[in-house]
UniProtKB/TrEMBL annotation:
Organism taxonomic ancestry: Bacteria, Thermotogati, Deinococcota, Deinococci, Thermales
Subcellular location: Secreted
Name recorded for this polypeptide: DUF1565 domain-containing protein
Gene3D superfamilies: Immunoglobulins (2.60.40.10), Single-stranded right-handed beta-helix, Pectin lyase-like (2.160.20.10)
Source organism superkingdom: Bacteria
NCBIfam families tied to this protein: choice_anch_Q
Principal subcellular localisation of the protein: secreted
Cofactor(s) it depends on: Ca(2+)
Keywords associated with the record: Calcium, Lyase, Metal-binding, Secreted, Signal
Signal peptide extent: 1-17
Gene Ontology molecular function: any one: metal ion binding
Length: 480
């Protein structure tokens, strides 16, 4: 009798709690999250080693976890920020033939929902979407899941920036951004020079991304800069940038990241301003990241070398310069100067530049810094007058496990020594000095598994996992 009364009491309390219309902590008011697959379509045939996928997710409180399970394998987490609703882009690795991928969402209470994709992989297994020997997908890189806005050449700046009603110009859209926001720029041509003055925070970065890698094509129309970042904690992702007269993408403040961009045809002048494809030469642009960029044809090559015009330019402390491909710059493919110190330069490919491949240096004593405590590792440097050099005012730097080949002078160090370098043909699939080749490594390449893991990036140029096999491979592409 006492037990029955207790059960009735519990029932009454539960009923009361359920009756309340205001949000309640009771578990009975918690609803399961939902998931809808936006792309690819179920049953689609794709080529390559996987596909980019996009899902729409929501929950009454917040989705806290997203996973993928491919072909009955382990359930793998896809990194997301908790969100009540949003669209998430991620990578699904696939094998030849039939594949089944189960995508599952969870809320904080452990309720879940799933959606299943059946995908067929046929045709060529090389490249990925977009083709070309450089690879043009984001691999495992996923956009953050913050408030998201859209730009499209067919949009209007009178719109609200939603997916259905996108804005028309980047210059307008970037003025709307607040910390944590994501701006997705849809494929097409944008004829403008963009200045970004907004800043994110360390936990709420601002992301400005071409929706498809190199799909948003920005022509700077002969202005100094293509994308000119004055704020901090801003990510510039996946743009094609050309026709600027100083720099393609430039940072003037700390903690910015330039990822997966393609910058070429920058008509910098050989004067005291110089220029670069991807430029963090400002002493204030410390703690930056330049990763996975393709940078070439920087400066008027017919005028010969110029030591003020570079592919990638680091001028501030503690930057990361990783996984980039740079060729045909009038100066160095990758250089440092001004206040650069303690910079990491690793897993890059630099070839056919008019002055040198990679240089570590400073010369004007900016901020009292000199070029020391650099780590230069796992790079491939081919076919430049100077391979890897120290220039100007340098201290002790570490040059570890780099491959230098067929440079007029492979090494020109002043105050440091190098360890573990290779001077061998790297064994590219097809080396061409004009950029038309395929710079992935043949399976017989001596550069496979020859890198060090210290400060190695987690991903490669195509955002595939970097740590494969017994060690990282040299250069931007991880083969196995
Ligand atoms: Ca829920
Ligand atoms: Ca490896």
């Amino acid at each position: 009798m006492r037990q029955l009364f207790f059960l009735l009491l519990v029932g009454l309390i539960t009923a009361c709690a359920t009756d309340q219309s205001a949000p309640s902590p009771s578990s009975s008011s918690n609803q399961a999250p939902s998931i809808r697959i936006l792309s690819p379509s179920n049953g689609a045939t794709v080529s390559g080693a996987g596909t980019r996928a996009e899902v729409s997710i929501s929950d009454d409180k917040a989705v806290t976890r997203l996973t993928r399970q491919v072909n009955g394998g382990p359930e793998q987490d896809i990194a997301i920020q908790p969100t009540q609703s949003g669209n998430i882009i991620f990578w699904i690795p696939l094998v030849s033939g039939s594949n089944t991928a189960v995508i599952r969402v969870y809320d904080a209470e452990g309720l879940s929902a799933s959606a299943t994709l059946n995908l067929q992989v046929g045709g060529s297994s090389s490249g990925g979407s977009g083709g070309g020997s450089f690879g043009t997908d984001y691999g495992g890189y996923t956009l953050p899941s913050g408030p998201t806005y859209y730009v499209s050449p067919s949009g209007s700046n009178a719109n609200d920036g939603s997916r259905e009603r996108p804005w028309a110009t980047l210059s307008f859209a970037v003025q709307k951004l607040k910390p944590g926001d994501v701006l997705r720029v849809l494929p097409g041509s944008y004829n403008e020079s963009v200045q970004v003055t907004a800043s994110g925070t360390s936990s709420q970065r601002i992301t400005i991304a071409s929706d498809i890698r190199w799909g948003a094509k920005l022509n700077a129309q002969g202005n100094l800069f293509g994308i000119d970042v004055r704020g901090s904690y801003v990510d510039i992702v996946g743009f094609e940038v050309t026709n600027a007269t100083n720099s393609g993408i430039i940072s003037w403040a700390p903690y910015n990241r330039f990822l997966f961009n393609h910058v070429y045809g920058i008509r910098a002048q050989c004067d005291s301003n110089g220029g670069a494809g991807v430029n963090m030469s400002s002493p204030d642009s410390s703690d930056g990241v330049m990763l996975g960029n393709l940078v070439h044809d920087i400066g008027d090559l017919s005028a010969g070398f110029c030591t003020r015009i570079h592919g990638i330019y680091q001028g501030a402390p503690r930057g990361l310069v990783q996984n980039n491909i740079t060729y045909r710059a009038r100066g160095f493919g990758i250089t440092s100067w001004h206040a650069a110190t303690a910079v990491t330069i690793s897993n890059n490919l630099s070839f056919a530049n008019l002055y040198g491949g990679i240089s570590v240096g400073s010369g004007d004593n900016t901020r009292g810094n000199r070029a020391e405590n650099f780590l230069v590792a796992n790079n491939i440097v081919v076919g430049n007058p100077r391979g890897i050099s120290e220039e100007g005012n340098t201290g002790v730097n570490r040059f570890v496990n780099n491959l230098v080949w067929n440079n007029t002078t492979n090494w020109r160090l002043q105050t440091s020594t190098q360890q573990g370098s290779l001077s061998l043909d790297p064994g590219f699939v097809n080396f061409q000095p004009d950029g038309s080749g395929n710079y992935t490594l043949q399976s017989s390449s001596p550069a496979i598994d020859k890198g060090i893991t210290e400060r190695a990036p987690a991903i490669d140029f195509q955002a595939k996992p970097r740590l494969q096999g017994s060690a990282p491979d040299l250069g931007p592409f991880e083969v196995r």
